[in-house]
Structure formats: structure tokens, C-alpha cells
Design brief:
Blueprint: E1 9-10, H1 11-21, E2 35-39, E3 42-44, H2 46-51, E4 55-56, H3 58-64, E5 68-72, H4 73-80, H5 89-98, H6 106-110
Antiparallel strand pairs: 1-4, 2-3, 2-5
Amino acid sequence: MSRILSKKRPLSRYLKDYKHIQTNCYQCGKLLDRMVLIFRGKIINKNAIMRMDQPIDDAIWLRLQPELAAQCRFCSEISCKSHANYFDIMAFKQYLLAHRNKPQHHPRIRSKPASLG
């Protein structure tokens, strides 16, 4: 009967504390200025965090922590929004160069700007 009860806090409080102690991106290691919190591969925004008011204890929090990751905004875009379609610029360039009957494109494609290296 002398069972020690651990103090329960809202999940949102644990998540806010977790966000404030993160200093580097989990993915690339970049110093975090603005960050995104990822849980089980999905972005958790601040409105969702505010709604997470169910009380949990330290034991549950310790089991949830490995599923959390703090990422920079760039890494979160790549890892969580993988359904986005990106334009394959190199394939397009090769297509234009293969079709030489379009001479107006050649000078612009072949002269690579200095900023592209």
C-alpha cells in the first residue's frame, strides 16, 4: 500500500520543455534557431501541442521521448513532406540538349551561371 505515485503533468508541458532544451537538428546537426518537432514521422505544430492536455507521468514520457525529434525547418520539409514532387532540372536540360531543333534554349542552358559552380 505504500506505492509511490509519480506526479503527472500534461503532455503539452513535457513537449514544450523538450523543445526548449533542443539545440541541434536531429538530422543534420545544424544549430537550431527555429525548429520543428517531429513525432513518429509527423510534424507537431504548436496548436496541436496546446491540445495535448492529457496527464502523463515520467515513465510514459521516457517511453515517448525516443519517438521525438527536433529538426531544422529544411530537414523537416524533406523528411516529412516526401509526397512533394520536385522538378528534375538535369533531365529537362538533357531533353533540351537532345532536341537540337530548339536553338533558342541552347545558349541559356550551356552557359552555366557562376553561382551554380
